[in-house]
Amino acid sequence: MKRSRIPALITALVLVFLHAPLVVLVVNSFNESRFGGEWEGFTMKWYDRLWAADEVWESLLVTLKIAVSATVAATILGTLAALALHRCRSWLQTVHHTLITLPLALPDLLMGMSLLALFVALGVETGVLTLWIAHTTFCMSYVAMVVLARLQDFDFTLLDAARDLGASPWQATRRVLLPLLMPGILAGALLAFTLSIDDYVITFFVSGPGTTTLPLRVASMMKTSRSLPMINALSTLMIAGTFILAALSFRLQRKA
Questions:
Q1: Helix (H), strand (E) at residue 84
Q2: Structural contact between residues 188 and 147, judged by C-beta atoms closer than 8 angstroms
Q3: Nearest to 181, CA basis, from 141, 151, 203
Q4: Which of helix, strand or coil describes residue 95?
Q5: pLDDT at position 24 over 70
């Protein structure tokens, strides 16, 4: 029977539909035209202006600080949550599982508003702390789900074998459990880092003075036409970085 080419054609059309805007953005980052309506020649001046925009790099530094710290906290908490959900069976763990998966289902708008309401009710001033708590909250859920998926195929008899050979619980965890879980843990950490860098909606609600992240800076730059070409250049760099992290995360999950 002759294989139909319709599925391959539909897949190609979907991929073109999804990635065509990204291609246009990357091409316009090298376009001489300010508005990108038509091609006026190749140029690198938008990248030069971006390099001289100190406020952009300050926002990038804030973004990286929040992303790294939130990723570390989310990786630790998410891994512990996944272990508890996999090993324990009780009504409390059912509630725990619901709370872990809730941030994945809630719209970012609703989550940002609820976190802001919580901070206001507690009298906490928005700033670096609130931004870190918010990013850790939603990143932890993604880490927990990735590690939990890795635990579904984990052979816990290996830990029993290590204990039979004289290993202490800590030695069995450090030398057997963590090395085997490490690809899944790293994949979850990379996913959390990518999500933290790209987040705009939740950050918009819980950020304060001195915590203007890169997505917030880009949104403010969109209001002036003079900054549009620099946004194209900046977005191109962000796309490249995001694709690298996503590809690395996918490879680690396949390895796991």
A1: helix 54-87
A2: yes
A3: 151
A4: helix
A5: yes
Structure confidence at residue 254 as a pLDDT band (50, 70, 90): low
pLDDT in tens, 161-216: 877 777 777 787 778 878 888 888 888 898 898 889 888 899 999 988 878 888 88
Coil vs helix vs strand at 223: coil
Give every CB contact of residue 91 below 8 A, 6+ residues apart in sequence.
Answer: none
* Cα torsion angle, 98, 101, 105, 109, sign: positive
Q: How far apart are CA 67 and CA 73, in angstroms?
A: 10
What mean pLDDT is reported for the chain? 83
Question: Which residue has 């859920």 as its token pair?
Answer: 141
- Between CA 10 and CA 7 the distance in angstroms is 5
Contact 198, 207 (CB under 8 A): no
Residue 208 near residue 130, CB atoms below 8 Å: yes
Query: What phi and psi, each to the nearest 5 degrees, are found at residue 210?
Result: 80, 5
Q: What 3-state DSSP class applies to 42? A: strand
Q: Which residues pair with 31 in a beta bridge?
A: 42
Structure token pair of residue 174: 């450090």
What secondary structure does DSSP assign to 127-192, as a single string? SHHHHHHHHHHHHHHHHHHHHHHHHTT--THHHHHHHHTT--HHHHIIIIIHHHHHHHHHHHHHHH
Q: What is the distance between the alpha carbons of residues 208 and 212, in angstroms, rounded to a whole number?
A: 7
Q: What are phi and psi of 42, to 5 degrees?
A: -80, 140
CA 234-134-89 angle, to 5 degrees, is: 125
**Phi, psi values for residue 11, rounded to 5°:** -60, -45
Q: How far apart are CA 233 and CA 25, in angstroms?
A: 8
| CA atoms within 13 A of residue 194's CA, in its CB half-sphere | 21
